[in-house]
Specification:
mainly alpha; Butyryl-CoA Dehydrogenase, subunit A, domain 3; 78% helix; elongated; PCW_Enzyme_Inhibitor; disulfide bond
Length: 179
């Protein structure tokens, strides 16, 4: 009887060792997991991450680079778009607010460029904070149209900032996973 208990005890120890020493393969898809966290923009997230050939690695650092590159590419066009809108707007109140958005777009772009450097240096907490700061800066532009007296934000500006905010949100989620 003592012999059978000893073998059972050894089996339990062996099984405990196996279950804690070797990670089990996961059934999940990292890109799906990330994009599920942004349900309103899930299709944009999937398109952004999956269409890049680098995404086949399913590596967080690579997904961060993909999302950074997409956000920076989009952000680079925003300041010139906003400047062109300043020239198109005739209402002085709207013109002043759109002019302020030029600076907000430039600051958001600078933050995103800094995020790229931080991820390259493996400073993920700071990268996440700077991505959030980029999104906050875009919100400053949008919120300026809510001030008194309220002004109508040009549709082109709304669409452009919404797209960039969605791309930055993907970046924030990816960097959250890296923390």
């Amino acid at each position: 009887m003592a012999f059978s208990l000893e073998i059972s005890y050894m089996h339990i120890l062996f099984l405990a060792f196996l279950t804690t020493s070797f990670p089990f393969p996961t059934k999940g898809d990292l890109i799906d997991d990330i994009c599920t966290e942004i349900p309103d923009e899930k299709s944009l997230c999937l398109d952004t991450l999956r269409t890049d050939p680098r995404s086949t690695t399913q590596n967080l650092e690579v997904l961060a680079q993909i999302s950074i590159d997409a956000a920076i590419k989009d952000a680079k066009g925003l300041p010139s778009l906003v400047k062109s809108l300043v020239n198109k707007v005739s209402d002085p109140e709207v013109k002043a607010r759109v002019s302020g958005c030029v600076i907000d777009a430039q600051i958001a772009l600078a933050n995103l460029i800094h995020v790229k450097q931080l991820v390259d240096s493996k400073f993920y907490v700071a990268a996440n904070e700077n991505a959030r700061a980029a999104n906050d800066q875009l919100s400053v532009c949008e919120n300026s149209f809510q001030l008194q007296p309220p002004a109508i934000e040009p549709v082109e500006l709304t669409q452009a900032t919404n797209l960039l905010e969605a791309l930055v949100s993907i970046l924030i989620i990816v960097t959250n996973h890296m923390l």
